[in-house]
Design goal:
Radius of gyration: 22 Å
Structural class: alpha+beta
Distance between the termini: 20 Å
Helix content: 25-40%
Number of helices: 16
Largest sheet: 7 strands, antiparallel
Shape: globular
Strand order of the largest sheet: 3-2-4-1-10-9-11
CATH architecture of the largest domain: 4-Layer Sandwich
Low-confidence stretches: 321-326
Number of domains: 2
CATH superfamily of the largest domain: Aminohydrolase, N-terminal nucleophile (Ntn) domain
Mean pLDDT: 92
Number of strands: 23
């Protein structure tokens, strides 16, 4: 299952080399998108940008960063495609130029009414240059801006048109704007640097990476406007919908050192492991996690069960996430290259293997085989997520049930297909214990779409 995207923005009181700051912020958000990266710098109301396919380190060299001028606003984006393919034209931030000024926009999420809006806009004469739903948002904001007195009014009007998941960071000629959709599907927060610069990011880990202190998470539906006067909150969209943060942010997407809506991601994953130990106990000699997203849950399982925790798999740090490679054959090859077992920890032992989820089943089958080849006596697989049964329409690449193994096979059948001795999933009714609340979206598990 692929990440969504990551957005980042900074508003400074004076002109600075902000591209470097955004670069470090995007580096901290690289786990959220590894297909493309981009930065737009606003200097004296003129926009300067660079964006391309690849990782942040591949897209931005020192020379390119120095070529981008100093400015007082800059925004950035790392992308994984959900709507629209992996094309250079789809790289963000999206830029729009009109007679009232420029607009640049970075988007994390997915519009559920994108197809209808695209058709309606085309019928009124709109010409699209990308296949991304982000361009629809940019077009609607621009359309309203030509009639409204301010950019924030235009953003607010556009929010009545669009549906689905969107956390946005926007720069107009004079302002930076942060927006979270009324359901709050995707995380978004802002902080303050010691110099008084405002920083907006998808996750708090990116704030800390650039020396900013967290101030608050945006509320669902909130619009924050950063200008020369400071920061102002607009709340006309707050309360329009029930809060439905994606629960998979806590299970997999977010970095463990982030806090989302006041809740520690690392702490949530420790709870996942503990819940698994209670619901699916097994006799074993060692608990290991699949790096990196299964490690916290494995530690929680070990603490709760009393079975020693160990490092059984080593991850090659220089390879991207497994599913980024297209095609089944490439996926299988990358698993072998990406992970390697520590035979001295595995041989002759009964192993509990914790992973964040089982989506297609291909990766898990390869890992189980690796452990057996390394001499594991038994392999008991535990998933810190319930079975994936339904597609997601709010920003992931699971758009149908076709490749979801749990939609076609029982738990016992999946266990046999992966070659494990036993297989257990996190019980669906345990999800609320992760955060202590029930205001999250779990449609990919239970089919209850907000």
């Amino acid at each position: 299952m692929e990440e969504k995207c990551g957005v980042f923005g900074i508003k400074s009181r004076s002109e600075k080399p902000l591209a470097h700051t955004v670069y470090y912020g995007l580096y901290a958000l690289q786990h959220r998108g590894q297909e493309s990266a981009g930065i737009v710098v606003n200097r004296d109301r003129e926009f300067y940008s660079h964006k391309d396919l690849g990782l942040v380190s591949e897209v931005f060299s020192q020379e390119i960063l120095e070529r981008l001028p100093m400015g007082n606003i800059a925004i950035g984006h790392v992308r994984y495609s959900t709507t629209g393919g992996s094309l250079r034209s789809n790289c963000q931030p999206i830029e729009v130029h009109h007679h009232k000024g420029n607009l640049a926009l970075a988007h994390n999420g997915n519009l559920s009414n994108a197809a209808r809006l695209h058709k309606e806009l085309e019928e009124t004469g709109a010409i699209f240059h990308t296949t991304s739903d982000t361009e629809i948002i940019a077009y609607l904001i621009t359309k309203h801006r030509l009639k409204e007195k301010s950019i924030e009014d235009a953003v607010s009007k556009a929010m009545y048109d669009i549906e689905g998941a969107y956390s946005l960071v926007i720069t107009s000629p004079a302002k930076m704007i942060a927006v979270r959709d009324p359901y709050g599907f995707r995380p978004l927060c802002y902080g303050l640097t010691p110099d008084g610069d405002y920083v907006v990011a998808s996750e708090s880990c990116a704030l800390y990476a650039v020396g900013a202190e967290w101030v608050k998470d945006l509320e669902p539906g909130e619009i924050l406007v950063f200008d020369e006067k400071g920061v102002a909150s607009r709340r006309e969209h707050c309360g329009r919908a029930p809060k439905k943060l994606c629960i998979f942010e806590y299970i997999y997407f977010a970095r463990p050192d982030s806090r989302i809506d006041g809740i520690s991601v690392h702490g949530s994953r420790l709870k996942l492991g503990a819940l698994l130990a209670r619901s699916a106990p097994v006799e074993a000699d060692i608990v290991i996690g699949v790096p990196d997203s299964g490690l916290d849950a494995a530690l929680g399982y070990s603490h709760e069960s009393g079975i020693p925790y160990g490092i059984g798999l080593i991850k090659n740090k220089y390879i991207g996430r497994t599913f980024i490679a297209p095609g089944q054959e490439n996926r299988v090859d990358k698993v072998r290259i990406k992970l390697s077992p520590i035979r001295s920890e595995i041989a002759g032992r009964r192993v509990v293997l914790i992973d964040d989820s089982i989506v297609r089943g291909t990766t898990m089958g390869q890992i189980v085989k690796m452990l057996r080849d390394a001499g594991a006596k038994e392999v008991h697989v535990k998933s810190s997520a319930p079975p994936f049964l339904h597609p997601c329409f709010y920003g992931t690449d699971i758009d149908s049930e076709e490749n979801l193994i749990a939609s076609h096979y029982s738990v016992n059948e999946i266990c046999k297909l992966t070659g494990a001795d036993s297989l257990s999933y996190l019980p669906l009714d345990s999800l609320k214990e992760i955060t202590g609340r029930e205001d999250f979206c779990s449609a990919c598990f239970d089919g209850n779409y907000p």
